[in-house]
Amino acid sequence: MSKQEILYVAYRDEDLEDGISYAMYLSNLLGERLRVILLSRSGFGRKFNDLMSAVTFAEANEHDTARRILSHEGEESEAASIQTRLMEKCESEGIEATVHIGLEATVTVIMNFLRQKKVDLVLLSPEVTESRSILKKLVKTSPRPVITMARGASSFIPS
């Protein structure tokens, strides 16, 4: 009989360290496999961010960098690097894991994974939780529990 899985959902471009560490902890604690989905941001927000980054580099006379941002050059090698790093991290902790990168940020993608009977629960990263669009739809339609993560409190100390 195959093991149950924890489905961890995050954006590919967010800081993964805290979220993946917690997902690995849960996976180890529950003795379950870990399936990681790193979504690509889509739509106007991403295009606007890319454009503004390119403009900033172009204004600083970094025209090659600006072109690379707009052409999305190097994204595939970056994705492969992220995937390899996450797989190695899980393997070093003795956790069976699968990493999927570059899927569009939609509830349909997540629901397709949930239709596999092996998924036991869904864990959303802090950024996916904050985006609310996926969270609201997923809570309504998910046949499995959805666990959200919040960002840790900042260590700001007023003077």
Report the CATH topology name.
Answer: Rossmann fold
What is the class in the CATH system?
Alpha Beta
Give the low-confidence spans.
none
Give the domain tally: 1
The CATH architecture classification is: 3-Layer(aba) Sandwich
Any key phrases for this structure?
alpha/beta; single chain; Rossmann fold; five-stranded parallel beta sheet; 50% helix; 7 helices; 159 residues
What's the short version?
The protein has helices spanning 17-30, 44-59, 63-71, 75-92, 107-114, 126-131, 133-141; strands at 5-11, 33-40, 97-104, 119-124, 146-148. With 159 residues, the protein is of the alpha/beta class.
Structural write-up:
There is one protein chain. The chain has 159 residues and is α/β, with parallel strands linked by helices. It has a single domain, classed as HUPs (Rossmann fold), CATH 3.40.50.620. It has seven helices and five strands. The longest helix has 18 residues, at 75-92. The mean pLDDT is 79.
Topology:
Elements: E1 5-11, H1 17-30, E2 33-40, H2 44-59, H3 63-71, H4 75-92, E3 97-104, H5 107-114, E4 119-124, H6 126-131, H7 133-141, E5 146-148
Parallel strand pairs: 1-2, 1-4, 2-3, 4-5
